[in-house]
Amino acid sequence: MTRRLRRSPPPHVYFVVSAVFHYLGPSFAVLLFARVAVLGVAWLRIASAAAVFALWRRPWRTFRRAGRDARALLVAWGAVLAVMNCCFYEAIARLPLGTVAAIEFLPVIVLAALGARTARNGAALALAVPGVYLLTDVRLAGEPLGVAFAAANAVLFAAYIVLAHRVARRDDVGGIDGLAMAMLIAVVAVTPLGGWEAAPAFLDPVALLAGIGVGLSSSVIPYVSDQLAMRRLPRATYALMVSLLPATATVVGIVVLAQVPSPVEVLGVALVVAGVAVHREPAEPEALRIDGPAPARAA
Predict the structure, then answer these.
(1) Over the chain, what HEC string results?
(2) What percent of the chain stands above pLDDT 70?
(3) Which end of the chain is more exposed for a tag (fewer CB within 10 A), N or C?
(4) How far is CA 150 from the centre of its chain?
């Protein structure tokens, strides 16, 4: 009997899917702000993604088996995820998507430089810091609150990465199950912030369906695609491709939201892209690289 060979897509395809949906979802969220308040959209995103992960993974079983330290990590990760998304949505309500995406990558480079003090990471900082300065200097006069939310999102992004790595190192809660449980915890954390603002969407079927779509396209599709890509791409290749994300966000902002950047903003994004491309993360254990959640995405 002849065996039929199943050909799976190349890992680069999964990354492209993740990169596109990673910022396509937030761009849809910006359009939804006309019908639902900003924090209400954030709540809809987290809640719909959590519902999908809950039905798929049933992560509470993992949470019950976990020890006290693992549970504390998951609670902290979920709380950071909730507040980070709120800050991100408040930022993109005021600033171009590409600008916010570029700012949030600065902590990734700083963390790498602190973890591996090399000339390469020093050069990455020398590129990224002026790029972020150019982006924020352009916007500080007109939207200081937007820059503040973008900066808060960037700081929380750094905390998110640290917590995600710590969870991934644990055999009892690592992988997608840990992410799914953190998303459920994030729903609890975000409800006092955005639950009431999301309530009108339940009387507006179009807004409700759009909010669910934002959750699927922002959190479910890119996170799962990340897992599929990371399992098959070398770490160096994946890191290099991640460097294109601020540029991807800028392109999505132009196409979907008509957010055409100025020449100075283009230069700022280009410097951040170069910095992310040059930097290298500290070496991680093999188990973390293969089985851990993909923590390089905040939005």
Answers:
(1) CCCCCCCCCCHHHHHHHHHHHHHHHHHHHHHHCCCCCHHHHHHHHHHHHHHHHHHHHCCHHHHHHCCHHHHHHHHHHHHHHHHHHHHHHHHHCCCCHHHHHHHHCHHHHHHHHHHCCCHHHHHHHHHHHHHHHHHHHHHHCCCHHHHHHHHHHHHHHHHHHHHHHHHHCCCCCCCHHHHHHHHHHHHHHHHHHHHHHHHHHHHCHHHHHHHHHHHHHHHHHHHHHHHHHHCCCCHHHHHHHHCCHHHHHHHHHHHHHCCCCCHHHHHHHHHHHHHHHHCCCCCCCHHHHHHCCCCCCCC
(2) 87
(3) N
(4) 13
Reported as a single tens digit per residue, the pLDDT across 53-85 is 999 999 999 899 888 999 999 999 999 999 999
Let me know: does 164 contact 77? Beta carbons within 8 Å: yes
- Which amino acid is present at 204? D
pTM, two decimals, is 0.84
Rounded average pLDDT over 156-174: 83
Separation of alpha carbons 188 and 48, rounded Å: 13
Taking the C-alpha atoms of residue 22 and residue 195, their distance in angstroms, rounded to an integer, is: 23
Please give the angle made by the CA atoms of 111, 113 and 117, to the nearest 5 degrees: 140
- Distance (Å, rounded) from C-alpha 85 to C-alpha 81? 6
- Give the Cα separation of 299 and 297 in Å (integer): 6
Task: Report d(CA 145, CA 199) in Å as an integer.
Answer: 25
pLDDT > 90 in the chain, percent: 45
pLDDT digits (tens, 9 = 90+) for 9-46: 777 888 888 888 989 999 999 999 999 999 999 999 99
Amino acid identity for residue 20 in this structure: V
Please tell me the distance from the alpha carbon of residue 134 to that of residue 264, in angstroms, as a whole number: 7
Of 69-83, 97-111, 251-265, the one with minimum mean pLDDT is 97-111
